[in-house]
Amino acid sequence: MLSKRLIICLDVRDGRTTKGIRFLDNVDVGDPVAMARQYYEEGCDELVFYDITASSDRRDIMIDVVRRVAAQIFIPFSVGGGIRTLDDMRAVLLAGAEKVSVNSAAVKNPKIIAAGARDFGSQCIVLGMDVKQVEAGAAIPSGYEVVINGGRTPMGLDALWWAQEGERLGAGEICLNSIDADGTQTGYELTLTRIISQAVSIPVIASGGAGTPEHLAQVLTAGQADAALIASMVHYGAYSIKDIKDYLHQRGIPVRLVW
After folding, report:
1. What is the chain's alpha carbon radius of gyration, rounded to the nearest angstrom?
2. CB-side exposure of 35: number of CA atoms within 13 Å?
């Protein structure tokens, strides 16, 4: 059985790591370069860097910060925020990232997924999805809607359909973030994660809501996720990466242990 991955998320705004709740009330939690190095040394499996206002501000990603982070770590590194073109993807990959995450730009121009997969390989293309629960209806039969621009713009797009379409276009992975659970530390959105994981054959990263190791165990088993993304529970020092991985191992969940 493949090991489940523990992925640390660095949401970056104005060159600093920040954290909020449901995309609101963000506070500064540190320097992304120093934090990336620390989490790498402590045994995280992958790192995700999001320039969280690049899309909404309609500006390019902070490539200098990407380059500085990449120089400090030797694990897979995914970068998202403000990536709109193949040139943007190329710049991020040349700066040291292994993967690029497209979210808002992919909804506006789905062809960017196929073009990126063609030029760089599906393994490099992560479809980022920010999703909010809504009343199920004809337009959104799953009851989960895709929202873009950092949680600001609902798109009337069904999340289940979009995940399947992203896979068809060539995405190699999906990072699925529940806006309702984001930053709450009350647990992942298990129903959303499970229905997406069951509907696609590519890996699904669960995001939004982690507060305890038990939450990760739940999403990696009942939620059927391939990886769990965390932020607050390590940013604020509640748990170490070793604590979390030891707990998962004790529950029989395959992980790469930290010695």
Report:
1. 17
2. 26
In terms of C-beta distances under 8 Å and separation of at least 24 residues, what long-range contacts does 19-28 make, across chains too?
19/183, 19/231, 19/232, 19/235, 20/182, 20/183, 21/182, 21/183, 21/184, 22/151, 22/179, 22/180, 22/182, 22/183, 22/184, 23/130, 23/150, 23/151, 23/152, 23/179, 23/182, 23/183, 26/52
**Given this model, what pLDDT does residue 150 score?**
77
The ranges assigned to domains in the chain are 5-250
**CATH number, domain 5-250:** 3.20.20.70
pLDDT digits (tens, 9 = 90+) for 201-235: 999 999 999 999 999 999 999 999 999 999 889 98
List the catalytic residues. 11, 130
This prediction has a pTM of 0.91
Whether the Cβ atoms of residue 248 and residue 199 lie closer than 8 Å to each other: no
Torsion angles phi and psi, residue 166, rounded to 5: -60, -40
Question: Where do runs of H (alpha helix) occur along the chain?
Answer: 32-42, 63-70, 86-94, 104-108, 111-120, 159-169, 190-199, 213-221, 232-235, 241-250
Helix axes 111-120, 159-169, angle to 10 degrees: 30
Instruction: Indicate the pLDDT class of residue 22, thresholds 50, 70 and 90.
Output: low
78 - beta bridge partners?
A: 48, 99
DSSP 192-247: HHHHHHHH-SS-EEEES---SHHHHHHHHHTT--SEEEE-HHHHTSS--HHHHHHH
Strand partners, 227: 5, 205
